Amino acid sequence: MFQRFRPSTSYSTSSSTSYGYTYGDYNTTTTSRPGTRRGTGRVSTARPRTGASTIARVEAQRIICAVAESRGISPTVGLAFVNLDTGEATLCQICDSQTYVRTVHKLKVYGPSEILIVSTAASPKSKLFSIIEENLEDIGSKLTLLDRRYWAEATGYEYIQSLAFKEDVEAIKVSVTGNYYAALKYTDLGLGLVFALHSLRMRYEPSEGSMMIDVSTIYSLEVVQNLQNSKSRDCLFGLLNETLTPMGARLLRNNVLQPLTDPEVLNTRYAAVDDLTKKEDLFFATRAALKNFLDADKILTQLIVKPTKSTIQTTEQAINQVIMLKQFVNSVNPIYEALTGTRSTMLNNIRELCAPENVTLVQELIDRVINEDTTYAKQPLELRNQRTYAVKSGVNGLLDVARTTYKEATEDAYQHSTELAEEYDIQLDLKYDNARQFYIKIPASELEGRALPPIFTNIVRRKKNIECQTLELMKRNQKINVSHQEVILMSDQAVEALIEGVRIHMSVMFKICEAIALLDMIAAFAHLVTLNNYTQPQLTDTLGIEAGRHPIKEKIMQTKFVPNDVIPATYASFPILHQLFARLGMDDNIETNVSTFAAEMKDIAFILRNVDRRSLATQGVVKQSHYGLALARVVPLPPGVVEHATFVAHKLERHMLRKKKTPETVLKEKRRKLILNLKEHLVQAHAGVLEGEVLTAWLKELQKEFINRMTALEVEAASAGQESDDEDEVMEDRSEHDEEERPSTYASQPSVMTISSHMTTSGSASESTVRAMSEASTLRAVSDNER
């Protein structure tokens, strides 16, 4: 439908071309990520690649993104995303950190097909440019450099004023400050796509208001794509995606990747889901009405984009879009009727947007030009017939003549098919596709024992059928095609006038489309709640979960899932969180020579740099042993290997635990030596010459030293005993037959204070010595027993 062109301008090939980039006046020369990374003189701040180059999408979309930066201690980055498939421009301003983590996250979530950046940022490379360049492969994008004048702020405001809906212009101009001209102008000059005046959806998306989930976490937690099978629905998005429209699926994906953090909006949505789940008539009527919607985003976008050059093909497509618009408008009223009686504020707002008066004017414009019985068809022949008879009679005097010719030529083709069947006594059918137009299909069984008559040509064998044509049929195809083109050309003026009239009402049409998408997502949640018996969480300052079930595991498990304290649950309480990080997996990155350990360390460093009090964080250490054996169980190893490895691992672990118990013996030996040492000192004092105050002072020092050393040994013994108890509990849970009774560490020992209490300063030296000797003998007997 669109004509692409490259303006005839001379390209400036300055020093930046050494980096593999070319840029000029209206540069459309782009580059993908270079094969080798050039040094930037700093440590990489990007999180390691996860193995998936892009986040799984509902569908492929053409998105252009312009990036602008105001440098400073806290840099502010402006992003403008223009979705060429859904006719929406999203403007973002992000107060980012020096690592530009939020900017990169936003780029990866939107996944633009092309990123526009000012050419001066490439030579020398700015930090933002280098970080974007490092992440190009993960984003799945290519880079285009444009001259600085395309980031002129004043010109950007003019462009916004001319393209945005009139009622939205002032709000957008107040919300944004920055350079958004490049992305909008590039769609015109670089891609040859022109948006009609005041027809482009523009919205401002602040950096706050949604949780940031970095791409590695999205990948690791299988948020939008299953790690084992990219086509599987066994992921969070696949589980939640019970939507019935393409618009609803796109909105759901955006909400999964950027969850809302506004409690008021969340509670409003909860109330809408609750209303749909409690009122069966409301729920079933809503779901039934949603089934009739085509992709309204794309329909409306095609109507607001003007081709640079009109052709037969663009006019054909325009008629197709008008027919689909007719079906979209006819599908709105059933939504209005289905939502009758709702008590939800959100559902009432959607109902008001879908009120008949909001689509009446567009409906009248369509009814003046398009036949009432015209409907959108998916089959090629039926769709061509609908295009041919779409415009009402009387709009163009020659239109009816061209239609008559088309009708007669088509009837001739069918008549020719009937004559062939009768003449050659062959059962055949007349089929149609866009490439060959009419062709003949003959079952192979009809030709058993005989050759295909020579009148048939362009023969193709497909399984049990033979497809062919005749010269006469090809002549009639040509006649049909010419008459069809005449019909299209004669319908062009009426269709273009209709589209111009409809463009005036595009603002309300897009708002209705957004309302339908939101309703579809909410209805999908209601379906899930009913089907899986999910519960509504309370938004509080505490994280609390009771009897939860893992939603994906519950879906894929053959046996009943045992509830635990993780959602969905019978009760849940959640604080509003703004960041979610995860490190999961053992994915060596061979291409960049990054081992599992190195990748883990880089991921953890990334998390620690960005985590704050509003983040959900993994407190304490997760105790998990033998995770290698758990991994081995999912690998198709020969029978018995894992079982034998488990036996050996447990045997080695028991051996290590026994070795860890040997410090108890060492401690007993240290205690015995300390007591014997005390005995020797007391014996020497008894036989020595020290008396009176001198002996008393010496005994005090001996007492103090003994108490300190024995206390230290008791603390050491207590610590070793606690560790041994913990390890024994683990072993008892794992293998009951290995349970052992540990001897008490110091149950039979006399107290240190008991010994020291007898070593008083009163009495004669000889009495003190005798008492100490008596205690020493007792201690020696104890130590002998322990040994």
TrEMBL record:
Region (Disordered): 23-51, 717-787
Domain DNA mismatch repair protein MutS core, residue spans: 231-556
GO BP of this protein: mismatch repair; reciprocal meiotic recombination
Gene3D superfamilies referenced in this protein's UniProt entry, alphabetically: 1.10.1420.10, MutS, connector domain, P-loop containing nucleotide triphosphate hydrolases
Biased composition (Low complexity): 23-34
Entry-linked InterPro entries: DNA_mismatch_repair_MutS_C (IPR000432), DNA_mismatch_repair_MutS_clamp (IPR007861), DNA_mismatch_repair_MutS_core (IPR007696), DNA_mismatch_repair_MutS_sf (IPR036187), DNA_mmatch_repair_MutS_con_dom (IPR007860), MutS (IPR045076), MutS_con_dom_sf (IPR036678), P-loop_NTPase (IPR027417)
Entries under Pfam families matching the protein: MutS_II, MutS_III, MutS_IV, MutS_V
Gene Ontology, cellular component aspect: nucleus
Keyword NAD recorded: no
Family: Belongs to the DNA mismatch repair MutS family.
Protein name: MutS protein msh4
Organism: Neocucurbitaria cava
